[in-house]
Amino acid sequence: MSAQRTTRRETLENLLTSLQNELNLNPSKPLFKLTYTSSNWPYDLTKSSNSNLKIAILDSSFNPPTKAHMNLLLQSVKNQSNIKFFDACLLLYAIKNADKTPSSSDAGPVDRLLMMESLASQICSINTKSEPTFNSLQNIAIGVTTHPLFMDKAKAIHSYFNNNKLSSSYSFDPSVIDSSAVEPSVIEYSAVDSTVDINSSTVDSSIIESPIIDSSTTTFNYSPQIYLYFILGFDTVVRLFNPQYYSNIYKELDSFFKFNNNIICANRDGYGGQEFEEKFFQSDIIKEIIGENEKILRLKLDDDIAKISSTNIRNSIYNIDQKKIDDDDNDKREEMIKNILYDFCPELVAEFIIQERLYRNTR
């Protein structure tokens, strides 16, 4: 392990410890911290700080980040007809997940944040000159939040911006980011195709992930200039609008959406199909809560993208690592693992996993 990576690990470990200590003082208060930013995040240098700020948020477990994660963000940004629709992007990781029980084979929080940094570097390296809609990808950050529930995440992010007031020359002081922000390095990387050649047919919920809203409280001090767009899978959106999670779904979801929170809904392969999706979006509950407001933007992903599975990647690596191949032919085993990683993960993420021997039987 390089000295630079060792130092970075220590920085992230200290940040997570500090975050946990702060959470212990007030367990009910949602917290959000930045761990990594591109140099100009969140505003483009040409944009006035008096303007509204629109942030595309990819919320996932990133265990590991895949080409599906990358394409979800790219297509969410590219999908908008207005070239300047999004100003910035955020990769969001919740250290606690409401829907999943941690496994011993999972990557730890620090490894996930480091993989997210590799993903961010890969995204920032994309040449935006030929694709102006990708400009917001140059303004990318990584954030970590303490609470798994959807409303709590929105509260924490709005609170963060409220605590770091906008100024005439808006920028974050590095000290506010716990001295852990780093600028992504630029690498040579060709424009990402919107389709990925994959073999797996299993859909993994870790591609897009966000739990339901916490119905215990629905008000928060939001930032009037900040508009959040959470990228969610269709299955999560269905759960978001399920009345069983609320005491008063209309009041609680109305409160959420009116505080500048929006959804980008991506189709999920194998979940109801196009006919079911159309029926859902024409349902009375959607019409009553959303009305004519464009609070849910729909995104159509290529079917192959939705089939890339973080779970399948982890399981494949673990299983190959345990196999006895040609009398313990380690070279063949390593080659098989590398092929899986480079097929399904962005290059820099694959390299990190290989170097750190993540998801192996023994590390």
TrEMBL record:
Keyword tags: Transferase
Gene3D superfamilies associated with the record: HUPs
A GO CC annotation given for this chain: cytoplasm
Record has Transferase as a keyword: yes
InterPro entries reported in the protein's UniProt record: Rossmann-like_a/b/a_fold (IPR014729)
GO molecular function: ATP hydrolysis activity; nicotinamide-nucleotide adenylyltransferase activity
Protein name as catalogued: Nucleotidylyl transferase
Organism: Gigaspora margarita
Lineage start: Eukaryota, Fungi, Fungi incertae sedis, Mucoromycota, Glomeromycotina
